[in-house]
Amino acid sequence: MSWSKRMVIIHPLVSRLAGVSMTFSELIDAVRHDPRAVTIPAEWSQGRACFGGLMAALTYDAMRAEVPEGRPVRSLAITFVGPAEPGKPIAFEVEILRHGKAVSQVLGRAVQNGQVMTLIQGSFGAPRQSMIAVAADAAPVLKPVDQCPELPFASGVMPDYLRFMDIRWALGGMPFSNTPSPAIGGHVRFRDEPYASPMNEAHILALVDTWPPAILPHL
């Protein structure tokens, strides 16, 4: 069992970023317009691959479009099969495994050069009556966002996709700070996003995956 945890508060706020060629919302719109050929810019890379959180978000959004209204997502199993290369077209394919009375089982694939790069199996289901009630965990108590230090973007040192993220550290130590704390966390939002429409699960998938592994502050 790992004692390291990540605690994140996601903010639907606007933070400006100059000179951005393609925002998260624009990439989502590209998938909705034509999921058969979407090219992710190099600015969204993580090493030699496209940022995994973005790949999951775009694949999920293509899946969501094929599910009837009234069936929110209940579970997602996400596998990053291989590194998707920035600057080359990616096809987002959706297969409906089954539409039942209340539950849809859906498979989503991100395919590049004929190879599956990201695979998601999702369950979407309508609410059901149940005698079982499980209370949600309380949200972490963190300092207000304006009192938390921003993780500055360092080009050539940090993954490129972090230029699009505004991360405010509120819990634990920064990466490579040799901090003994078993947890990290804070506030996170996209930069340069208009938020003309409400945030959905695709936004959350990308934002949650923004944070580094909780082991890094120990180093």
UniProtKB/TrEMBL annotation:
One of its GO terms (molecular function) is fatty acyl-CoA hydrolase activity. Signal peptide: none annotated. One of its GO terms (biological process) is fatty acid catabolic process. The keyword Signal does not apply. GO terms for cellular component: cytosol. Pfam families: 4HBT_3, 4HBT_3C. Residues 41-124 form the Acyl-CoA thioesterase-like N-terminal HotDog domain. Gene3D superfamilies: Acyl-CoA thioesterase, double hotdog domain. Residues 146-217 form the Acyl-CoA thioesterase-like C-terminal domain. Keywords: Hydrolase. CDD domains: Thioesterase_II_repeat2. InterPro entries: ACOT8-like_C, Acyl-CoA_hotdog, Acyl_CoA_thio, HotDog_dom_sf, TesB_ACOT8-like_N. PANTHER family: ACYL-COA THIOESTERASE, ACYL-COENZYME A THIOESTERASE 8. Belongs to the C/M/P thioester hydrolase family. This is Putative Acyl-CoA thioesterase II. It comes from Pseudomonas caricapapayae.
